[in-house]
């Protein structure tokens, strides 16, 4: 179902969101391959915050760099924008540098990512892990379910697609915790694309046939799950997520942000509701976007910006003189 257009979001131009992610990507790109994750992330955070504060809005960071005592800027709850108290109220989910390790090692798929919605439109997801599964558009509703095994999910997807399970390709973060999932998928002949980082890009890849990825599964950060859902709301697809808690401290953190059902399986529209806008700019080359390139006094960027209410996807190439 297409979201109803928001008059609030109409006041925050779609292309302004691209300018914000472009600024973060350009800043991070100056440290690509330099081996310093913290410096690259700090550069992206500073540039994104400066760009956000130039926009006429009353913005609140609901997914950010962490809680106030963990992050000096773009922390959860921070107010941004040039019209605090009088401008349109906007919820913001962001990751100024999704894939800090990727950027530091000049690997693929590092992105600057941002999603906005009307106040209350994005889940205040605590900074914990989330079990995730996602597919692109065009499948019967309910085709994926976290209560089913990887084999059952892939088999159902293959049947809907009219192929064998061995023709399906799954994207999975390359982590020791996913060894069981990987072994089960390989046992049924399913192809696996292992990625070192960047699960927002991994989820979005399921919507693009050129990537050949059919399904994303495994656990990653809950904030990244909300960002990925904002993108899926715009282009179609299905997502299921369940928060994972390792200790009482993480459960207490969830309670602080209003999460009461710790075993809830969240649907796409519960994580990103109503109209929303998603923007991303490539920092390094990847399956979704080209990375920032410097050619003399010009830096080039490639971005994508999407809106849920219209289903519009815009690909934006920029030249920035430095």
UniProtKB/TrEMBL annotation:
Q: Which CDD domains match?
A: FBPase_glpX
UniProt entry tagged with the keyword Calcium: no
Cellular component GO terms held in the UniProt record: cytosol
What processes does the entry annotate via GO biological process terms? fructose 1,6-bisphosphate metabolic process; gluconeogenesis; glycerol metabolic process
Residue sites binding Mn(2+) 2 per the record: 95, 98, 224
Its UniProt entry gives the catalysed reaction(s) as: beta-D-fructose 1,6-bisphosphate + H2O = beta-D-fructose 6-phosphate + phosphate
Give the family this protein belongs to, as stated in its UniProt record: Belongs to the FBPase class 2 family.
The record's keywords, sorted A to Z, are: Carbohydrate metabolism, Hydrolase, Manganese, Metal-binding
- Its domain of life reads Bacteria
Any idea which GO molecular function terms this record carries? Answer: fructose 1,6-bisphosphate 1-phosphatase activity; metal ion binding
Identify the cofactor(s): Mn(2+)
Identify the residues that bind substrate: 98-100, 129, 175-177, 197-199, 221
Annotated residues for binding of Mn(2+) 1 = 41, 65
| InterPro entries hit by this protein | FBPase_class-2/SBPase
What name does this protein carry?
A: Fructose-1,6-bisphosphatase
Native organism is: Sphingomonas glacialis
């Amino acid at each position: 179902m297409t979201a109803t257009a928001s008059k609030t979001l109409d006041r925050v131009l779609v292309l302004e969101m691209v300018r914000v992610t472009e600024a973060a990507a350009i800043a991070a790109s100056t440290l690509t391959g330099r081996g310093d994750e913290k410096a690259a992330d700090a550069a992206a955070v500073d540039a994104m915050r400066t760009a956000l504060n130039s926009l006429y809005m009353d913005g609140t960071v609901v997914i950010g760099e962490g809680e106030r005592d963990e992050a000096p800027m773009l922390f959860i709850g921070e107010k941004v924008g040039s019209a605090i108290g009088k401008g349109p109220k906007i919820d913001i989910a962001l990751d100024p540098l999704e894939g800090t390790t990727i950027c530091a090692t000049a690997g693929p798929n590092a992105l600057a990512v941002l999603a906005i919605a009307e106040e209350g439109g994005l889940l205040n997801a605590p900074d914990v892990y989330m079990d995730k599964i996602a597919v692109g558009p065009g499948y019967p509703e309910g085709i994926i379910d976290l209560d089913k095994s990887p084999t059952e999910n892939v088999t159902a997807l293959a049947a809907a697609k009219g192929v064998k399970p061995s023709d399906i390709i799954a994207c999975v973060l390359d982590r020791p915790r996913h060894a069981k999932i990987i072994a089960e998928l390989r046992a049924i002949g399913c192809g696996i694309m292992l990625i070192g980082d960047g699960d927002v890009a991994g989820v979005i890849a399921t919507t693009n046939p050129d990537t050949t990825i059919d399904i994303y599964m495994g656990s990653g950060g809950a904030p990244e799950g909300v960002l990925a859902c904002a993108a899926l709301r715009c282009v179609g697809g299905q997502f299921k997520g369940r928060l994972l808690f390792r200790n009482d401290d993480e459960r207490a953190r969830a309670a602080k942000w209003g999460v009461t059902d710790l075993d809830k399986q969240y649907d796409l529209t519960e994580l990103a509701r109503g109209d929303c806008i998603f923007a991303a700019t490539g920092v390094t080359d990847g399956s979704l976007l080209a990375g920032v390139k410097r050619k003399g006094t010009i830096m080039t960027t490639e971005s994508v910006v999407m809106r849920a209410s219209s289903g519009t996807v815009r690909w934006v190439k920029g030249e920035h003189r430095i």
